[in-house]
Every structure is written in C-alpha cells, then in structure tokens.
Amino acid sequence: MENQAAIAKKREKTQIGIWYSTWYNLGENNFWEHGGNNQAVYYRPLLKDGKSFGIYDSLDREQTNFHLKAIADAQIDFIIMDQTNLVDNPFGGGCINKASIDTAKAVREWNLAGNRRIRYCSGIGAFGTKEDMGHIESEAKLLWERYCEQAWGTEDDHVYIDGKPLFVIFNCLFTEAEWREYQATHDTPYCDRFTIRCSTGHVYKGTYGQWGWVMPDGPQIDEDVAVMMPGWYKFHFTLPFVFRERGNSYRNSWKTLLASEITPNYVVINSFNEYAEHTAVFTASTHEFPEDYPIEGWIDEDGKPAPSLYWDITKEYIAKFKHGDVE
User: Fold this and answer.
1) CA triple 271-225-115, angle to 5 deg
2) Which of 6, 10, 69, 114 could be stapled to 2 by a disulfide with Cβ–Cβ 3.0 to 4.6 Å?
3) Which residues contact 42 (CB under 8 A, 6 or more apart)?
4) 302 CB-near residues (< 8 Å, 6+ apart)
C-alpha cells in the first residue's frame, strides 16, 4: 500500500461537494410546516448567530453566508443546489428558484471577497415518463439563461467539468443509459452546452457513477464519484431506509472511502440541509421531534443530545481524507 503522503497527494485532485436545499421559506404555506408530502419538518438548524436554533428563510442572505462560511471551513469545494422538483416549482410562490439564484449570487460575492473559493451547480429533474424526457432540455435552457449567462455563471463561481458547466439530473423513471441515448438521438442544444451527471432514487451495490440519492448498500466508489450519506427516511415510501445509528452509518461510509484503493474525482455528501428526507448533516437540534416520531434524534453514543454530531463527523473525515488516512 502507498504511504500516507502519496495517498494524500493523489487525493489533492478530489473535489468535495454537498447537496444544498434552497426551499426553506417563512410565512404562509412554509416548508417547515408542510415539508415534503405535507409532513412537517421538526429539525431546528443552527442559525446565523451561531448560538440559537430555529427556522430560517433561504432568502436570508446572512443565513446563507453563515452556511457558506461553515462549508468553506469544512474544506468543501462546491454545493449542488437541489432544484430537482422542477426549477420553476410553484411552491411558496417560486421560492426555490428565487432562493437558488440568490444563493448563486451569494457564492459570487463570497468569492469576490477573497474567501476560500466555493462553487455551485444545480440538480434538476422531475417525475415524468420515459416517453417525455424533453423537460430536461427545457430546464437546461433555464439554467443556462439564469446562471451561465449571468455574472455568477463563470468558471470562477460555477462548477465546470471538461470545460462546460455541470448540472446533475435526478430521475427514477429512466436510466442514465436511456437518457444518454435520448440525448444522442434528439436535438438538445442546451444540454449539449453542459457536462451532465446523473443520480437516481436508490443506488445499490455494483452501480457506479451516480451522484445520489440514497445508498442503502453504502458508497459505490468509482473513479468519478463516491457519495457519503448519514441516513435517509421518507414518509409513505416502501423503499429501504438508511438508519443513522447514532452516526455509525455515516462514519462507515467515510471509512469505506478511506479504505478504497480508488481515488474518485469527486466526493459528494448528501446532504447539507435536506431535513425533509433526513439526509442533512449540518448542525441542528432535534428536541422538537414528537415522542412517536419514527426518526432517531441526533444523539451521541451515550444517548445525549448532539446537535453538531454529523457536522463534526463531516469535518473530521474530510480532514482524514485530505491527510491521506486509511481505515
């Protein structure tokens, strides 16, 4: 086996990204009360003062900057803004689109201020059919116009791969191979301007190159990507859940990566703040979970509340990865 210094040198090429939710709004019909599948979100994340816990609006620039600082301090290189339920989703008066654009602007201003550089890209997709993949091209057009043609869309701020801006397709209803065939046989001028990666609902053992979403068999590591996740639970779904086990599921994902002889180009964490599907790792209090809630609160091995447990693991294992540690 290579020595630690040699492994650390190889890992210098690896970019670390994290899925980032931009759909948190306040007021009437807010996401905190209704969430996904009309299920309330009971997590109370750490707020911009760095001390209190509560709910926030994704258009609160100070809160976004607080997140960017935490992301930079953790040595994370880019965010994937989760716009996978339609870029122009009407929820909250289009709050996802508005907050995503504002987040991209915040990234640019963060970088212009001389901070550790962070880049962004978008995850898109919608539940359509195999017969209708045209929505991907139409959403690519929106991404090109709203991001790539703007001041915040250059390689300084947007993730580029192979000389093109990146976006990630999420879809459960057609395979990556079916999408590639569609793109090869249809006129897709906007998609052709991008480098595209794919993700799907559940990624099982032996399936490689997927940038998310759920990894019930642990990370599937290839030269392109490895996905780290702490857990997953979605109400009213029958697919396999991933239980957190007081942080052990997340630690084991990272240990699998550290032990791998493959050094991927990208490590993607699912997710920074997707509290509705219970994949988040950023500091949050779970003290408002109902007594009969089927989700494990964030507690340490002694059963004590541990709001920063998953963020501490994130920072610890990114540092180990960059240092060349193996397990």
Assistant:
1) 60
2) 6
3) 286, 288, 289, 290, 293
4) none
Nearest-angstrom CA–CA distance, 11 and 314:
17
Environment class of 33 (CB within 10 Å of its CB; exposed 0-12, middle 13-18, buried 19+): middle
Of the candidates 59, 7, 5, 6, the one whose C-alpha atom is nearest the C-alpha of residue 260 is 7
What are the backbone angles phi and psi of residue 16, rounded to the nearest 5°? -110, 125
Beta bridge partners of 227: 268
Return d(Cα 249, Cα 153) in angstroms, integer.
36
- Determine the Cα–Cα distance for residues 132 and 116; give it in Å rounded to an integer: 41
> CB 217: neighbour CB atoms within 10 A?
14
Residue in the structure block whose two tokens are 């040595």: 75
Helix, coil or strand: residue 224: coil
Q: Which domains does the chain have, with CATH numbers?
A: 4-323 (3.20.20.80)
Report how far residue 43's alpha carbon sits from residue 272's, in angstroms, rounded to the nearest whole number: 13
Distance in Å from the first CA to the final CA of the chain: 12
Query: E-strand spans in the chain?
Result: 15-21, 44-45, 78-82, 119-124, 160-161, 164-170, 195-199, 225-228, 266-269, 284-285
My answer on whether omega of the bond before 311 falls inside 30° of 0, hence cis, is: no
**What is the tens place of the pLDDT at every residue in 32-83?**
998 866 789 999 999 999 999 999 999 999 999 999 999 999 999 999 999 9
Between CA 315 and CA 92 the distance in angstroms is 33
CA dihedral 87, 228, 311, 285 (to 10 degrees): 60
* 275, amino acid identity: Y
Task: Tell me the pLDDT tens digit for each residue of 243-262.
Answer: 999 999 999 999 999 999 99
Instruction: Identify the segments of the chain with pLDDT beneath 50.
Output: none
Q: How far is the C-alpha of 228 from the C-alpha of 255, rounded, in Å?
A: 10
- Classify 115 as helix, strand or coil: coil
